[in-house]
Amino acid sequence: MTPGRRSSTFTRLLRHGFTDASAAERLLDSAELAAVRDDPVLLEALGATADPDLALHGLVRLLEAQPGPTARQELLDTLIAAKPLRDRLLGVLGASAALADHLARHPRDWEALVTYEPRDLHPGVAEFEGGLAEAADPVSLRVAYRRCLLSIAARDVCGTTDVAQTAAELADLATATLRAALALAEAAAPEDAAACRLAVIAMGKCGGHELNYVSDVDVIFVGEALGAPPGPSGTGGGADEAKALRSATKLASHMMRICSETTVEGSIWPVDANLRPEGRNGPLVRTLSSHLAYYQRWAKTWEFQALLKARPVAGDLDLGQEYVAALEPMVWKAAERDNFVADVQKMRRRVVENIPVAEIDRELKLGPGGLRDVEFAVQLLQLVHGRTDATLRSGTTLDALQALAAGGYVGRADAVQLDDAYRFLRSMEHRIQLYRLRRTHLVPEGEADLRRLGRSLGLRADPVTELIREWKQHTGVVRRLHEKLFYRPLLDAVAQLAPVEARLSAEAARERLEALGYADPAAALRHLEALASGVTRKAAIQRTLLPVLLGWFADSADPDAGLLNFRKVSDALGKTPWYLRLLRDEGAAAENLARVLSAGRLAPDLLMRAPEAVALLGDGDGGGLEPRGRAQLEQEILAAVGRADNAEDGVRAARGVRRRELFRTTAADIVDSYGTDTKPVEADQGALVDRVGGAVSDLTAATLAGTLRAVVRDGWGDTLPTRFVVIGMGRFGGHELGYGSDADVLFVHEPREGVAEREAADAANKVVAEMRRLLQIPSADPPLLIDADLRPEGKSGPLVRTLNSYEAYYRRWSLVWESQALLRAEPVAGDEELGLRFIELVDPLRYPAEGLGEDAVREIRRLKARMESERLPRGADPKLHTKLGPGGLSDVEWTVQLLQLRHGWAEPGLRTTRTREALAAAQAAGLLGTEEAAILDEAWVLATRVRNAVMLVRGRAGDTFPTEPRELAAVGRYLGYGDGHAGDMLDAYRRTTRRARAVVEELFYGA
Questions:
Q1: What is the pLDDT of residues 437-447, one digit of tens each?
Q2: Residue 5: pLDDT band by 50, 70, 90 thresholds?
Q3: Which of 272, 311, 430, 809 suits a disulfide with 207, CB 3.0-4.6 Å?
């Protein structure tokens, strides 16, 4: 061969899409192709395939496998003369190495592609049954199956059938195969076949008439005794039924093995019966009455969702139809189940969470924006609206999507985009699987694989780049639409802007809102109408935002409250340009707002009092949701007080700052506890508790400092006649305040030089009285209650004492419980030097030298036991009382405080007002074991979280779990429990506190 000719052929091969032109030249020069190597028809046909190199290699192998020269020439002549065969055969060889292998093993099967009759274009079950009719054993069944598959693939790659028709043909071929396999099983055991009726119900993609090239074929088996009464009530008679079920199980098992086992011709596909009642733990075959009993009593939501695709395909088809008819009413009532939408969406999230991180971006089926997103969305809408609209009851995804659009349940434009995306993604999936006939849903990474895949889909200019661009574009469409699909038609129904499109009826809208968890769908529709109607910029932006917001509301325990609160905020701020711009443009703001508005009463109440605080939810310059430190808060509050004209105005300003910062804290807590699309749930529950306790305690201290400044300035100018300090006690001193906690304090003063004791005392008492009054004046801001009951002599003693008076009282009268209370004492506002002197005064009391005596220890234990028996509210369940119940806050705190009283003098780490710090120090000092410390810490954190949750949800403090179901569910959601799992939450609380109580019994009571 001359160099010039070689160069010309080489160039021509490259132009026709060959990537290894040298190898292609050698193959074209082989003896098998010598007669046609220069035929332009052949080269053009090879160049039109997905992978010309693969097609040419497969063709040479097929020619080499022919039984002789005559057969080889017959193939070549037909190939060159008959364009239909040429396109089909070379198309298959260029797309599927696995089918090329089959043709090389069975070299006469190419003749199956010659026929080009009308009935060959769209074969059904009967035609495929004819193609499998001669199979007499599992091996010949595999050969016949691949021969039929060859014809399906040929029509697919040549464009004779679209992706939906191809999927339907694959399902029909599976139906014919299951029937053939069952016939082989019956022939092998005629006595079993004669003893029972057995129906094979296709599920999943086979049942939905939308099968892949390589997929598990999901089935459910129904068996009955021969002669059993028809219908679901038939019981068949004990012995006969048991025998029939044994025979049916043998037949079903054998049928599954025939399809699934690997032979010299490989396998067909696995037959998977795990969708049956009880999954792999349940019997393989059940009677119809047994199926019904299970679905009536035990079935979960996803099992009814799976039944959408149930279709009798083999065995006793009459029995199969009875099965479908008996279960169908239950399928269409599934949407009435509690937490229906949440269960379906949770199942979808669980699927995504189980995808390996390294594969999630390549997952066509299960990844975000993948095929499963379309399928779940369509099935959810079918179950919601198929109850009253029989046109939606299709097991085929694209048919159901078309019916949903025709009925106005899905916007037509959205349906068209989803249809296009689903078809493209399914086409990718088909071509990926066709190459090796392996079950995979991963987009390949290799350049050659991507190039073949792109070319197989008609992308020829730059196959790899075009493929990736289209793939990402379609997954982006699905990701954007699949959540909004539920909500956008609701807005169209109430806004009524486009007159031509079919809309949801009022009844359909109500059904959908009920299914999404709205308790009052009529009110929800009124809110949507108010928010979305009209042609204003506000209405237009809200129509864009609401489909996403409604999804987040539906993910909460109280969607109704979320939507109502959003309407209130929008009514208050809708005319301010920054508000809508914030929600539209700042990624986190809209989701943060939705979480906050639907998580309970406290945060929305705080926001409604000053809606402009919504700016804190954004990503911008408003400080976001990070808590501010005490110094920064105090600086702002003191500055606001300094600008005020009088004490009342000054404290009003301080309370306004407190309200805003409380909102910041509650919002951050909710977002961290719920998680968002971009921010996972905070895993460290203790960190959440510490963050809330620290933020609320700092805010309370700053508010008291501002109030003190306002009162002093208003009554005495710059200097009060007596030095004055506020000592934080209890949870306030311990930096552990919750949302509903009072501020426990002591007031200490010391007359300035030259000031009479009476004048100083009067001034100090006036300050305290005015502080308490101003902080509780009814207003838009939440009151701050000051509790001074831990002072000497309790409620009977003076509110304010001098430092000398405290010293005299503690020296002469102090009781052991007062020493215990002083463990939490810490100055929080006022004269710093006086506060330090007070701490020096009480340190010997709370950390007594050589520790507590045995009498004092017995007294503390006696007090604790009396408190447990006397202070628990009437009717309260002790095991669920977070403060006084066994293993609750009181148990853990008294145990830790006893360790502090006994060992604080010797262990500096114990000299802290904070419970968790003291517990960690006690563990480090060896005063309790690592496991014991962890148990106590877990219980204390959980009980604190429950108290915070109750306040967030109910808007008022409480020490027990709510009894109202929605409130209980909202507490559970805050604690990380999904809908329907309130019982699990209560069980976990009892279990955690029970373990803590056992530690308390040992450490505190010495049991």
A1: 999 999 999 99
A2: very low
A3: 311
Q: Which two tokens stand for residue 91?
A: 């198309």
SS3 556: coil
Distance (Å, whole) CA 9 – CA 16: 11
Query: For tokens 């501020």, what's the residue?
Result: 743
Alpha-carbon distances, residue 569 vs 280, 617, 667, 781 (angstroms): 51, 13, 15, 17
Q: What is the mean pLDDT of the chain?
A: 91
Query: pTM of the predicted model, to two decimals?
Result: 0.76
**For the segment 381-425, what is each residue's pLDDT rounded down to a tens digit?**
999 889 889 999 999 999 999 999 998 888 888 899 999 999 999
SS3 680: coil
**CA gap 914, 900 in Å, rounded:** 11
209's torsion region: left (phi>0), alpha (psi -120 to 50) or beta? left
Cα separation of the two ends of the chain: 101
Q: Does 501 score more than 70 pLDDT?
A: no
Distance CA 166, CA 122 (A): 9
The H-or-E segment that residue 188 falls in is helix 163-188
Residue 865, H or E segment: helix 854-870
Kindly report the number of other CB atoms within 10 A of residue 149's CB atom: 26
pLDDT in tens, 53-88: 999 999 999 999 999 999 999 999 999 999 999 999
Dihedrals φ, ψ of 931, to 5°?
-65, -40
Q: For strand 271-272 and strand 217-225, is the pairing parallel, antiparallel, or unpaired?
A: parallel
DSSP 930-969: HHHHHHHHHHHHHHHHHHHHHHHHHSS--SB---SHHHHH
